[in-house]
Structures are given as structure tokens and as C-alpha cells.
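The protein record passed on below.

***
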Amino acid sequence: MWKNMNTQAIHTEQVKLEKFNRMVQQYQDEAFMLAYYFLGNEAEAVETVESAVQKAYRGGKSASRPFRLWFFRNVITECQRRRDIQRKVKTELQAGDSTGIEAMIFSLPGKMRIVIILVDLLGLRYQEAALVCNLPVIMVQKMTAEARVSLC
């Protein structure tokens, strides 16, 4: 009985994921274009759309608007978040207050500190940072997000 319920739950989740993937594929080129023109960088746009897709899937679909609009809103939110973080770091570094940002970076746990330096300061993509750190890409994305929250 439990095995049958578990199998049914797995099947339901697979169907949900397949449906979500089909909807994302339908709008991914437009989402990339939106992120690219917002951020002005191809690699950042790709990573931003990937991050928005992951967050959108985990967050579930809002019934208040069509998927396309809801998805684009997620992409814009992620673009704004990235731009705001980059702007904050650049402002602090340009203001000569690097000791403040350095202290915050040094306060991060070891691997998280390495990941945030690779991704946000050196500009590596998540995939590249994952190779450098010998970690799964999803772990690098998670650590980067947690580090950004800690730094803000």
C-alpha cells in the first residue's frame, strides 16, 4: 500500500515537472532576451533565467496571472536582485570602504566565502565555480544565494 502511494506521488511530481518544463521552454528565449537586455551580459542572463526557473518551480505557479507573465515577473525580480547586489558591492568597493565588505566576506563560512568570491567578485558562472570547488552546480547556487543574503 505505501509503495503504491509513493509511486503515485513520484509519478504526480514527474508529470508536474514535465508540464512546468514545457511551459518554460515555450518562453525561455523571451526570458533570456529580457534578462540580457536588463543585465547587459549573456552569461549573467543565462544564470539569472536558470535561477528564476528554479525559484519559480519551487515557488509554484500563481493562479492570479497567466504563466508567461508570472514567469517574466520572476525573471525581472531575479535581475533586479542581481543588479542591486552588484551595485552594492561596487559602491562599497569604490567608496574605499573595502574593509566593511572584506569583513563581511571573511565572516562567511569557508566554502561559502570561496563561492561568493568566485561568482560575484571574479565573475565566474555557477558551472565554472562548481568545477573549481568540486561541488554540484545546485550547491554552488545555494551557497551563493545564502552568501548574498548574509552580505545584504
